C-alpha cells in the first residue's frame, strides 16, 4: 500500500500515448521515460489524479493488479513525476497550457553562405520577418579572420542566437574557437567538420559548445529528438521542422528547407516577407504529427524534428514517402 491516498501528476510531466507504449515527457528536466499503456490510462483517466483508495476498492479481488499499481506509484514517486494531494483540491493545480504562439513570421533560418558580401542584405531581410535564430553553414574555406569579419555583421540586430557549422581550417584550435564565442556571445555552438585524423582536441572530455567531426553530418532521426515546452506545444499544432522555418541557399535561393527542391525566389532580388507570408510557402506549416499516418501512433511525435516532406494521399491524408528508422508498432529501431 502507498503512504498517501491521492497523488497528482506534475503539470510539466505529460504522458503521451503511442501504439504499443507511452512516454512521460518531463518538460522541466528535458527528459523522458517510457511507460506501459496501462500506466498511461491510469494517469489520464482523471486529469492526472491518482486516487489510491478508489483503485484498491475497484480491484480488491485482483491482487496482481494491486501489485502492479503499487509498482507504478513507486516508479512515479522515484522519478518525481507525482506529488501528494491528500486533503487538497486538484483544481488548485491546473494543467499546463498547450497553446502555441510566436510573434515571429520566421523564427529560424538555415543559411548556406558562399560569400559574406551578400550577408548584409540577408540579415536585413531576416530582420523584416523577426527571425531570431540562425544556423550559419560557411561554404567557403574560412579562416578565423574571415569568421570574425562575418560575425561582426550580426552585431546590433535582432538575431540573438547563431549556430556555426564550419569546415576545418588549419588556423582553428579549441582555444581560439572558445575565444570566438567569448567575443560574439550570440554564438550558441560551433560544429567543425572534416577535421584531419591528426587533429588533437585537448579537451575532448569537457563539456563545451564546440564539437569536431571527421566527416560531414549524417541525419539520424533518433538524434533529432528535442524535448522542451516550446517544441512540445508547437508540435500539438504545427510541423516543428517546417513551421516558421526558412532555408537560404549558397546562391540566394529561398526554400522551405535544405532538403526541398522547390525555390520560391532569390534573397538577393526579392523581399523575403512577401514570399514567406504566401500560402504556397506555408503549405507544410500546419501538418502536425497528429495528422500524419504512422507518426500519429508514435510516442515520440511531440519531440521529433522530422526533416521529411509530408505528402498527401488521394483521400487527403498526410504521410511520409520515406520510412522512419523507428517503428511505433514494434518499438524497434532499424538502420536504413
From TrEMBL:
Cited InterPro entries: Aldolase_TIM (IPR013785), GRASP-with-SPASM (IPR026497), rSAM_sf (IPR058240)
Classification via SUPFAM superfamilies: Radical SAM enzymes (SSF102114)
Protein name as it appears in the record: SPASM domain peptide maturase, grasp-with-spasm system
Lineage: Bacteria, Pseudomonadati, Bacteroidota, Flavobacteriia, Flavobacteriales
